[in-house]
Amino acid sequence: MDEILKQLADNQNKLTALLSNQEDKAAGNVHSAVRLHGNTGIFATSGLERDIISAYVRPRGIASYLPAIPSVSENPRFGSITGFTATTGDQPDNACEDAPTGYMKGCNLTAAFGLKRFDTNTIEMDKVMLKLNRGDFTDLVLHGQLLTNMGLRPGNMSESQVMNVITMAEMIIVGANFERALGADLWQGTVAAGSFPGLDSQIATGQVDADTNSACPSLDSDVKDFNYNDVCGTDLDIVEYLSMLMYYLEYNADAMGLGPINYMIAMNKGLWYELSACWPCSYMSNRCRNSTGTQIAVMNDNINVNERDRMRREMVIPVNGKEYPVVIDDGIYEYNSTNSDNVEAGSFASAIYAMPITMGGGFPTTYIEYVDYRQAMPDTSLLHGLEEFFWTDNGRYSWAIDNNRWCYQLSAKTEQRVVLRAPQLAGKIQRVGYSPLQHLRDSDADSPYNFDGGVSTRDPSTYYAVWDSSDR
Fold it and tell me: In degrees rounded to 5, what are phi and psi of residue 409?
């Protein structure tokens, strides 16, 4: 009997702890989501015109061009043949004697997922349908776009509802947070920061075997340093640097039998604008100097202007007689006078990346993998609705619904990683300086070039009534 009572007591303690834990996790009991209409609603303004224009700058980047592949492998291995050892032994005098022998060598790379999570604010069901009065119209029309097609956020979101449906507005806020965070992680992410290893840390020298930590120099990327020199300056020649980079990488691809490679050149938007301004002249006159360094090529027509405009219009850059597509990516790190002593105020520095997207036969070389939440269905189907969560986007994102009486909150998570299967085919030119006349706006909320303004809530409406004696 004592044993039974002890077991009942243990079960009661476990149940109490579980309920306490659930209460801690429950959605709040106060509506904290943005109010679109009704009292304090940001669109509940008498006389507000129907057309609403977006001034939000969306992030852009290479993720739009990368395939997304589902996976359930936490610690994968990507194998490579790195070469053959030198032979040992002597050439025989007779045909049946032993001859020199050698060995094949290989190297395994790996990748790691990074968890990213965002929640909506608490939504009170009683508040979502309220309007201030008959002057609070809910037929508003959005002009512009709030989300991108990069795939870095949950899909199936209706931007047309963002001004009238609170739950959709909160979900779009979550989507925008995913786009900005994952877009930066794609390049800048590190395991130490709780993310997956970004492309900048993978396009590197010092590659090692995932199982033995043995050096694998044959898998090293080509990394060059422009040392903060101006992209259009005379101290270092950007044409020589980028031309050598692509010649080196294309040679690797051809010598390794991996070609043809589908390359993309990725860089910051400000760097591209400055590079494209001087590239035509520098490219056409490269090595056209006499012994004193004087430029001997004469260009006095509109060829350079036309080529500059074509490069910007078609987003391409000619290198070594071949045109490469250019992609602008807002997630690439940018140095400025605040985060680097090597950059003067008004100037910046960033990197130019040569990204191998696919290699011979269309095999993906750079791609995104994500934890496939669909694979949990054999287990979750046994819960019979006791847990409120669901997946979207072919298992790429998981949503959970947290209910607290008439309040609810949505939570979304994803676990992704970027995979660079052949780092020896990738390269970068680090710390390329540029001094634009004006810096463009940024999507990063922490950037000094991100501008929002306005309000998330308005002052409560004023009214008077015989039954209300409060001081207004």
Answer: -140, 140
Tell me how many degrees the CA angle 451-453-456 measures, rounded to the nearest 5.
130
- In whole angstroms, give the CA distance from residue 465 to residue 220: 76
Neighbours of 148 (CB within 10 A): 19
Residue 370 has which token pair?
Answer: 């994500």
3-state secondary structure the chain: CHHHHHHHHHHHHHHHHHHHHHHHHCCCCCCCCCCCCCCCCCCCCCCCCCEEECCCCCCCCHHHHCCEEEECCCCCCEEEEEEECCCECCCCCCCCCCCCECCEEEEEECCCCEEEEEECCCEECCCCCCCCCCCCCCCCEEECCCCCCCCCCCCCCCHHHCCCCHHHHHHHHHHHHHHHHHHHHHHHCCCCCCCCCCHHHHCCCCCECCCCCCECHHHCCEEEECCCCECCCCCCCHHHHHHHHHHHHHHHHHHCCCCCCEEEEEECHHHHHHHHHHHHHHHHCCCCECCCCCECCCCCCCHHHHHHHHHHHHCEEEECCEEEEEEECCCCCCECCCCCCCCCCCCEEEEEEEEEEEEHHHEECEEEEEECHHHHHHHHHHHCCCCCEEEECCCCEEEEEEEECCEEEEEEEEEEEEEECCHHHCEEEEEEEECCCCCCCCCCCCCCCCCCCCCCCCCCCCCCCCCCCCCC
**pTM for this structure?**
0.88
| 258-269 mean pLDDT | 96
Q: pLDDT tens for residues 448-460?
A: 999 989 888 888 8
pLDDT of amino acid 472: 52
Distance CA(274)–CA(248), nearest Å, equals 24
Mean pLDDT for the chain overall: 89
pLDDT confidence tier of residue 8, bands split at 50, 70 and 90 = very low
52-109 pLDDT per residue, tens: 899 989 999 999 999 999 999 999 999 999 999 999 999 999 999 999 999 999 999 9
- Taking the C-alpha atoms of residue 155 and residue 151, their distance in angstroms, rounded to an integer, is 8
pLDDT, one tens digit per residue, over 320-353 is 999 999 999 999 999 999 999 999 999 999 999 9
pLDDT at residue 373 greater than cutoff 80: yes
Residue 245 C-alpha from the chain's centroid: 24
